[in-house]
User: Fold these one by one.
Assistant:
Number 1:
Amino acid sequence: MSRHTLAPAPSSSGTLPGLVVASFGRHCLVESPNGERRICHPRGKKSQVVVGDRVAWLPTGDEGSVERVDARRNLFYRQDEMRTKSFAANLDQILVLIAADPEFSERQLARALIAAEAEGIAVLIVLNKSDLQPAFDIAWTRLESYRRMGATVLPLRLKGASAAGTEEGLDTLQLHLADKTTLVLGPSGAGKSTLVNRLVPHAKALTGEISRALNSGKHTTTSTTWYWVDEAHSSALIDSPGFQEFGLNHIEPMQLAHLMPDLRATLGQCRFYNCTHLHEPGCAVMAQVEGLDPREQQKSISENRYRIYTELFAELSERRSY
């Protein structure tokens, strides 16, 4: 798993620079600037690295040890009552791939966007299966509130191995991926594997190679994996295993409105400085929810988005009362 180029010079401490391109349990795969990859083990029982980390490592025989993890620009993760699950670090953006069918969960979409906003990471929403009608038009309408609050939403039609027709929207999507490190998220059935394999033709073979290296031939769930999209190594995709739930236990209830752009636009206009936007008189957020004030023609917050806010606020408040 290497390219035949000059090896990087070690630092004064003897460590070498590297990039974590895959991880599983206590193992990770580190890529050197010359393209060489080898299994490394983080030092210390509590030490944990994630894909996208820049590290300093030392060779130990055929493997290596991670001596230091460089400061991260950001870390995208989810947290529930049981554990914290980190996806990747040092991201430029997150691509959330959803589909016209099966119907996507707006609550899961909103949670992913809130977690990204908390880390200052841009989000790209891509709606796949634009050839399915009327399902696509219905799904596109459901995303109107996200476009209205400034999110980039792109249509896409991927041609699968057995599907007829042509692909649409892929060229536009690739422009948004150029020169960026992008984490790809998506529920089952959205076409995430098809997209990754389309953008990175060697992805399947590379995944198998990494799986064998990290897991010593044992059958395990797929690890989070970094793929270079171009020969110049300026654009990268990070593919991660799917998930059923997206916990936000690391978010304080009073933070929520600040992390939802449509609600945030009216903050500071409420009568009370500590307004929860749930029941207080003079709440500017509630006044902007569709249907609450018949005198207003254009509302900035959809009823569904406000419902998601109230449910999340209650969920996070309840867990902090234990």
Number 2:
Amino acid sequence: MKIFVTGVCGQLGHDVVNEALSRGYQTVGSDIYAEGTGITETPSSSLYSYIPLDITNREMVGDVIRAVHPDVIVHCAAWTAVDAAEDAENREKVFAINARGTRNIAEAAKAVDAKMVYISTDYVFDGQGTEPWEPDCKDYRPLNVYGQSKLEGELAVAELLEKYFIVRIAWVFGKNGNNFIKTMLRVGTSHDAVRVVNDQIGTPTYTQDLSRLLADMVETEKYGYYHATNSECVPGAFISWYDFTKEIYQQAGMTTEVIPVTTEEYGLSKAVRPFNSRLDKSKLVEAGFTPLPDWKDALRRFLKE
């Protein structure tokens, strides 16, 4: 199997490449950067190669994918700066990357009859209520620019392809890049106390665990929509960012005080954030996939790295 991965300089793309190589698959990574730039750990495997790619350039995408002719495309590249997406000067670029860029990848996948994995987000929903969102729910109501752009990417993939996996995740953390855990550890060393919201509820996603699931998926033809965050430690026991931070400091052996506040009290975000990021992951089990381990276990392994 030959796998083409976009966004390999990011958290997830980096781990997807390593997982694919660990399974002996010929793997081609791509990102906007020139070769070597932006990649913290370049795989040394003879099975790996890298191609710079601007996914917003439709002609370039088509040429590269035709030349590589992969069996699978795992599309991790995205604009993920949620607050910056709200700035008027960035909106065109956000949609060029997340919506039209995804359409370019999907068109190229169709041309070579490749399976495609599209990484999406709970932000395609409005985040209201307390019930976990089901993967096949079509009640789309994004609250912000980022969510709308990712939804348009979803719709493009579903419109153009039959061989696709649309996988929604939330609260992502991984070794290769910045994330909430790294920020909290940094802030916790320089502050005696931190304020963290306690009314946004969900579960985090460790990219190393997710990459294993994605590799399992592309080895099958069980296409469709899935939700894939790390499991709750107790079924149905979703957490807040406050709960997550408390556990981060506890596992890291830090004594920083964590002060719970509401989203309104916190008040620093440009983008409206969903309160309900609970994602129903039961479809994974129904399809025969192994769910991601519980989030405390994932955090423990991440901190050890």
